[in-house]
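Quick one: co-fold with magnesium ion.
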Amino acid sequence: MSGIRNGFGPGAASPTWLGVMGGGQLGRMFAHAAQAMGYKVAVLETSPDCPAGHAADHLLCAAYTDTAALDELAAQCVAVTTEFENVPAKSLAYLAQSIVVAPSAECVSIAQDRLVEKRFFTQCAGAAGAPGVLPAPYREILDASDIDSLPDELFPGILKTVRMGYDGKGQARVASRPQVRAAFDNLKGVPCVLEKMLPLAYEISVLAARGADGQAVVYPIAENVHRDGVLFKTTVPGPNVTPECAARAQEAALSIIAQLGYVGVLCIEFFVLQDGSLVVNEMAPRPHNSGHYTIDACVTSQFAQQVRAMAGLPLGDTRQHSPAVMLNILGDIWFSGDDEQPQEPCWDKVLALPGANLHLYGKDDPRRGRKMGHVTFVAPTLAQAEQHFRDACVMLGIAAERFHA
Ligand code: ATP
Ligand code: MG
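Sure, here it is.
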């Protein structure tokens, strides 16, 4: 097998190592995919007890900025990727002086900053041949004086921190300038953007991947439902997604990934508005929660795809072979009522449902709101997968009204 810089492929006499910055569940599932292809995996992460660390062949326990640890990772691996988008871009740039880093520090740094990201999307939308998908109308708020000049048409809106936001954290819904002032103070005056609140019909994400040779592929569109700012359910094919919407979103994603010169798996979130128009929200420079269904429902999972892209191997087939519904498993279901003693959910019942695939991330400390795992239901028809998803919600004590958009 060729493509890897030193010529050693999986299964060669001396093991080839791939590195991951970050020790979460995305790193864990990446490690499983890489190991299935014969690679050894090194993880760099500050915490010794982490989901990826348990799966890795070597856990380097150090800060992301620790130069000695970065040197060790670079010496051991032929290529490094990231599973956590807030890894300092400087550390990725440092690694890139000696080994392949995919995605690049530059691409990751664009995704780390909502303002830079929105400017990039706007520029992409204006490129020749691009489908012209724009972000929501927005204004930057770098200090309190920017609040006075906000245009009225941005209200009601959502104030979001420029950096470090995830799972709806670092956000506030605001209806007026005084509310923006209060929310901006609450967010400690860090740089923010105010986005116009749009009338969403539904939300989708597009998973794409690109190799160093410029070959790019795209997965089927995923339709996502969030609860309390966290992804709750992903359905593929999306029941609301029209062929026109799917084609436009895939075209926009391919245009974005090409204009970034990106290498690896990239997930782009879009909003579909009530009038059918498409708006680009944000991107994650890594495999994504909404792409977990690919493990059980596609020819090549998003994690195997990341391995292929970073190792310079041909990209895999993105074809979906089964309709799929993914249920995110949060720590809440370990607790019933006010009982503070966690109880293992009834996995035996869930796994008795046809087509249920359970993935737990090896976290032994369930907490409310914490992502503990996911279950993907695959079936010959979407209606059957959806029924098994609903049955599982009942078994796990997830309130019925919570799974309606
Ligand atoms: P995550 O990391 O979980 O993807 P995040 O914290 O980065 O989330 P966003 O994706 O920007 O935040 O927003 C979270 C959710 O809030 C969106 O999925 C959507 O449901 C809603 N939302 C965000 N921006 C808007 C908007 N401009 N108009 C309407 N709804 C919005
Ligand atoms: Mg989001």
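If it helps, Residues 269, 281-282 surround magnesium ion (ligand 2) (CB under 6 Å).
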